[in-house]
Recover the amino acids of this structure.
């Protein structure tokens, strides 16, 4: 168990299980709803980003949840991916995603606890590179990732052709 922000409430960061799926599916919709304002290319209506059941069972994915007093309050995963370019100085990396903290628990360091555990998992897999994607206009998320050590690297741009 971990404590966050010097508060006495025990925070447990653990691997997700199949029993966590109903809550994880709600978290996924939370991620999607938070990202919709930043992405006009998302189709309207219900969508899913992740194959959460596969993430739970795959040896190449570490899906973690944050649990506070028996309630799931956050999530995140690291997935081993091959390098996109032959000229990178790494052949595999850990891609992080599904970073979600329940609104009432944001700002308490939960995201950092999850990322720290994912970083340790990546090291144990022999990986030396972590990557993630965040919408450039999502300033709060950008600041949160910078706060835990990520730095801006490449900006992907888009244009709609009419």
């Amino acid at each position: 168990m971990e404590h966050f922000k010097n508060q006495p409430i025990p925070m447990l960061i653990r691997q997700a299980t199949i029993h966590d799926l109903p809550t994880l599916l709600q978290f996924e919709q939370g991620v999607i709803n938070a990202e919709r304002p930043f992405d006009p290319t998302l189709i309207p209506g219900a969508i899913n980003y992740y194959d959460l059941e596969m993430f739970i069972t795959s040896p190449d994915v570490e899906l973690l949840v944050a649990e506070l007093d028996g309630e799931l309050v956050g999530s995140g995963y690291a997935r081993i991916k091959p390098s996109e370019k032959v000229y990178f100085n790494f052949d595999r990396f850990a891609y992080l995603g599904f970073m979600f903290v329940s609104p009432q628990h944001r700002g308490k360091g939960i995201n950092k606890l999850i990322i720290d555990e994912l970083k340790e998992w990546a090291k144990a897999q022999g990986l030396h590179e972590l990557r993630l994607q965040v919408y450039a206009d999502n300033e709060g998320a950008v600041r949160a990732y910078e706060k835990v050590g990520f730095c801006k690297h490449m900006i992907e741009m888009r244009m709609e052709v009419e």
In short: The mean pLDDT is 93. The CA atoms of residues 146 and 152 lie 8 Å apart. The beta strands are 2-3, 10-15, 61-68, 71-82, 92-101, 130-132.
